[in-house]
Amino acid sequence: MKHYTFINGSVTSPLGFTANGVIAGVKPQNTTKRDLAMIVCEKPCAAAAIFTKNRVRSDTIAVTQQHLQNGTAQAVIVNSGNANACNPDGREKAERMCALAAEALGISADDVIVASTGVIGQVLPIEPIEKGVSALKHILSADGGTNAAEAIMTTDTVKKEWALQLTLGGKTVTIGGIAKGSGMIHINMGTTLSFVTTDAAISAAMLHEALVEAADVSYNMVSVDGDTSTNDMLAVMASGLAGNEEITEKNADYALFLEALTASFRSVAKKLAADGEGATKLVICRVSGAADLQAARTVAKSVVCSSLVKAAMFGADANCGRILCAVGYSGAEVDVQKIDVSYRSAKGEILVCRNGMGLAFDEVHAKEILLEKEIDILIRLGDGEAEAEAYGCDLTYDYVKINGDYRT
Amino acid sequence: MKHYTFINGSVTSPLGFTANGVIAGVKPQNTTKRDLAMIVCEKPCAAAAIFTKNRVRSDTIAVTQQHLQNGTAQAVIVNSGNANACNPDGREKAERMCALAAEALGISADDVIVASTGVIGQVLPIEPIEKGVSALKHILSADGGTNAAEAIMTTDTVKKEWALQLTLGGKTVTIGGIAKGSGMIHINMGTTLSFVTTDAAISAAMLHEALVEAADVSYNMVSVDGDTSTNDMLAVMASGLAGNEEITEKNADYALFLEALTASFRSVAKKLAADGEGATKLVICRVSGAADLQAARTVAKSVVCSSLVKAAMFGADANCGRILCAVGYSGAEVDVQKIDVSYRSAKGEILVCRNGMGLAFDEVHAKEILLEKEIDILIRLGDGEAEAEAYGCDLTYDYVKINGDYRT
Predict the structure, then answer these.
(1) Which pLDDT tens digit goes with each residue over A321-330?
(2) The model's pTM
(3) I need a surface site. Which of A366, B25, B224, B246 has the fewest CB within 10 A?
(4) Across the interface, which of B83, B121, B324 has its CB nearest the CB of A56?
(5) Residue A391: closest CA among A191, A210, A195, A230
């Protein structure tokens, strides 16, 4: 039974938050696209974040990590169009962005989360951001979440925003968020830029715990192209304005909060994968019967990461060999002789492999199933009871096109 | 100084070997393409092989492993068009192929190496192979290497065959070989089907040592798409007919033999990468200044495996961020502040990153460099003296096209 309800909303749905996004001009060739956003709370929030594991990283990561050391934040400033990574003045520019936001909002620069996304290795122009912040401070509003979601998009084709509600001790708690991510998305990293807000009362320590647990089965199980970014960040701020009893330990309220956070992150994971660069379909690999959780996760990730599986999904080709192959090189210790594989979509389900052996199957029906927009690859390992799912997409001509000349 | 010379030749160039390839009909829809080959020596040979590390593997692997336990082989039988993997009767069919070859040649089935390549999970039809062996036994010849090279091709666009010579103790020693591989090629595996012959006198144990050492810097440093096959095999047979003193330890002759074997394998690695599915160019990542060999190899492999780097190479986009990004997530412990990156081709060399920072550079010249067919990505780490190179290709529309519907 679910203890939460998705609602129409965004990062501004929880009590206390306003936001907006403007065309600041960081993207010089796209002067019709928003490229600077701010998200602000009326009071300092408990805050936590997780980051890319890439050793090459934007200075925004280090600055944000420093600002979150005390578990408190009150605002986010984020630009698209330039990653501010691998630049000689990256640190200075990241700190300048925080100072600009702090000055405009009358808060401490230490309470600002800063993020950037876009081209790596090009100096970030600060003038557009100065002008953008001046404009933003006058238009921050509870309706501005959608504009903020637009402002962090790069190659995304759809904006990602969401909200959901749950009840904690009789109080309505709302969680909202925005995310960007389309390419350079891979497992085991922050994966994307994502900013999450909630009016739940929860300590920074418990917020961090919940963030890590929820990301582990959602953001950390998405792959578009196997590349991981220099700038990934998933940050959450909790205003406490819902008035629930503050969560300071892993009690029943924590479990409910985690359940809702996980559901919202999983919905984002699917959106990120479905909007993968060039993707025409969402591919979810659901592994069951694994000996342990690690094996289930390893197999699921290996399958959604396989270029050959992804190309076959684009071609609606019910190739079972590529699935087995990806299971085989995943590194998980599986008994090949027990593996069953099915494809499933709104058009039905078809078994293509039983006990590790390819089956003859109805190719026409298989094609019909695989021509849908959301495909499940079901793998039953027969080794135990553990389950996992991973989120990916197909590999298409447009992925190559988008990435063949990204900078121009 | 090189101690070997490449010559025009093939797997039949070393003394004692004959081969051929025929249209047996394993590829039912391609009745104009050769799909069955045999390579035979007039006497039993010292033999060794390395295999895929995929847990899901063709029964041909197990049968060949068993036949090579005594370090002796006299013939290879190999088909394309069907991988004989993930089939209920795979073992039986693989053994039947050996028996057919043995009977036709009047040798022991235990001295036959068997391999298959093609679609996974479809039962291998044995009748075409029976007919093919009957035809082959009458046409085995010293000129048949090229036909054998053709017969093992799947999505390859060019056949891969080579030969080179060296002198050991005054005797001319020849090494020859054929290979196939275009997609499902990845590092740290046998990577492909490849059959190598030599007339050197060398023990099976030393042959195995040399094979592993040479493959480690060649076959094991090639990536086309990150997928590894169920059927990879690299096998070598040594007839001893060159009359050199048998190599039974790691002496000077072993060093010369290894040098030549390594050179021949590196030439194949480049051919495999350049003929990667859909590839328009060969991309070699040359890493220098690494703290140790492991770091050099890890970085080089990470860069040639990156989908984003590969797509940028297709688009002739001198993106330095993607290179740094791939270095950063490689897992190698590098000092980002010391990394220099250049692109080089026949049109010149251009530095795009110094000390981990992107540089402004001449975009027109960079484009000119990257429009060539063979690109070097030069990465200087500044951490030490170790070097490595890895071989890859670009990611193109045609990769997607080829793999969108491989089976039809």
Answers:
(1) 889 988 988 8
(2) 0.78
(3) B246
(4) B324
(5) A191
